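Rotation project, supervised by the postdoc (A.L.). Task for the rotation student: set up a whole-complex structure prediction and record inputs and outputs verbatim in this book. Inputs entered:
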Amino acid sequence: MRRTVITACGCVDEGGFGNARSWTPWPGGVPRLRWRTFSDQPFDRFGRLDLLCKYAVAAVEMLELPPFTEGESRPDLALLLGSDNGSLDTDVKFVRSIHEPGGASPTLFSYTLPSTALGEIAIRHHITGPSACVMAGPESGPLALWEGMAWVAEGDVGGCICVGCDAVSASVADAPSAHAYAFLVADEAAVATQGNAPLARLALSPAPDGKIDRPQRPLRQLFRLLASGGGKAPGAALYLPAPATLNVLQVMTVSNLNGRSDGRAG
Amino acid sequence: MDELVETLKKQIIEALSLEESTPDDIDPAAALFGAGLGLDSIDALELVVMVEKHYGIRITELEVGRQAFSSVNTLADFIRKNREPCGESE
Amino acid sequence: MGIVTAAGWTPEEVWSAIEGEESGLGRLTLFDSPRCGHMPVAQVRENPAARSGLREGSRTDHLAVYAARCAFSDAGLDSFADTDRREIGVVLGTSTGGILDSEGFLRRLVLEDQLDVSLLRFHLCSSPANAVAGTLGLLGFRATVSNACASGATAIATACGVLESGEAKIVLAGGADSLARLTLNGFCSLLNVAPDGCRPFDADRAGLSLGEGAAIVVLETEAHARARGARIHAYVAGHGSTCDAYHATAPRPDGSRALAAMRSALDDAGMNPTDVDYVNAHGTGTVDNDLAEARALMQLFDGHPPPVSSTKRFFGHTLAAAGAIETVVSILALHRQHVPANLGLRRVDPAMGFEPIGHTSDGELTVAMTNSFGFGGNNCSLLVERPTDDRGQGT
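Outputs recorded:
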């Protein structure tokens, strides 16, 4: 079983967007997302994506994956999306379109599956490893992280992009909300070989003293912890629930791992 | 005549969510598919829906659609030939 | 195992339809559809709500719970105490969730401006897994996989991982989907539906036929199963999963990533292509899928595949349930030593390079491969193996 770490994080939510390096708050309210906000690279398709896909793709862009060459593919990279509402927003819009003149919209239909977001991310970044969209209520995001950790730990893949994303617009819900948090999970040894410093280590552990953090949006909590560099709370650990009953997901920021009391590096 | 072409450009941009394009960006004589706007097979089907929605013309054969959607100009010609006449009785 | 399809409510009924080469396709009566109602569909004729034992839920919930209860009993778990049920998990795949019932809400909202929010409460994809867990009192690991048409297979693969991690001792895994206006209209809008029913790998194939149903298998480690004296139907020998990274709805034409998924499953099982005795293909009957899959199969088996058939004309394309239904069908084929027919085949497309099995045939079958390829380019391949006396290892 390999040890796993988080090496990058990204977020697009009602507060703004960014990653561990930088954060940009929205100046006014949350705008309609435009691709050029997130990247200089061309991506004409972005406007056609539905809300869920836009948020998921933008959050993954914040991970700043290494650029690829045309024709290259990444079979060693996997994708996981955890979503509570899934494609609900587009489901409703699509069913409306069935009753409109001209009939059902084929473009909308392709987005009535949350797994299409996986496809969009895979196409954009040439990712050809395993992928899955998992749903488990409010714990969908942590479940995606848990699963990604398992895939890397088992040696199935070298890395996994885990995204927690939910997006419901005003046309569907009284309280629209949209947010996406992306994390890159990788094998600790491989990361060390590349000379990179991870943000945090992942492990399964029994909940310490039965204490499990159950924030309303667990991955936002995680993003904030990692984006702050753990500096405000050295050795900070977050215990995230997953729909598992034996163990919880422990995330421990690296600042604790690297600075031991005896002065030796981790 | 030009009015239909200009209207079609706007309708195409709306139907296909081409957010980064304006009507001026679309050359009415240029190919819609392949290079240029980079439209794909689902976009073609979306245009079928658009044509029925705005002009009442139902395209049921893929080949008919393929010809009609070659460019904005060919689409305008197709619509002029096939749309229901206005103000005429059966 | 538990299964419900348009062609039968038990493994025996399903196999009887296969032996008799009787398609479950017929007229759509579940709802009206002016544009698409003439398309043949594989509709479950009796109301699943009458047989599920679930007090209330969406049609998909009822299908899932029915299949789950059958599988649970079949595995001899009815007598399990509550405390032990904490170690039983559920991993289900679905793509429609409760959308059929939600459509009633939306229709009223759009056409009649009436709001009945209660119709939305079973909408979410996580509803069937919750219904199954709730009905059977299962408190262990619970998750829903939504991977389009690969969901059912991916759910089974995911469940294997859950068992391997020790997070659960037993996992109910599979998929469920009901017919819905959303999917019928959606596939019709893509011009992907066959007016005379799907004909996988046929030269004149014109698209898929939608179906509905559910299938659930009870998975556990071999050691655990033997310890409690459970009957082992089959082993999940291996699984593999990849992305096409090509297009939202069309498969990669060269089938290269589908091929990679199959190879990955074989690697996982420690097997070679020559070990596979039967392939239950995804074979939806669309022009693109069948060709891409054929190319992948021809490459994997060096131009000489074992018996191949798609059983989609029996049950329709049941979307998220397909991978699970076809896993059960593959297991039945291994038990009965018969290869199911590729129903609907009149003249194979020469571009395929091979001939699917036209009629239910005898075979010496120990290992079967079942493929599921979903929208978004999600590919999942599973290998199931018949228990034999000298079989040493389990899941």
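Student's summary: Chain C has a mean pLDDT of 93.
Supervisor addendum: The two ends of chain C are 16 Å apart (CA to CA).
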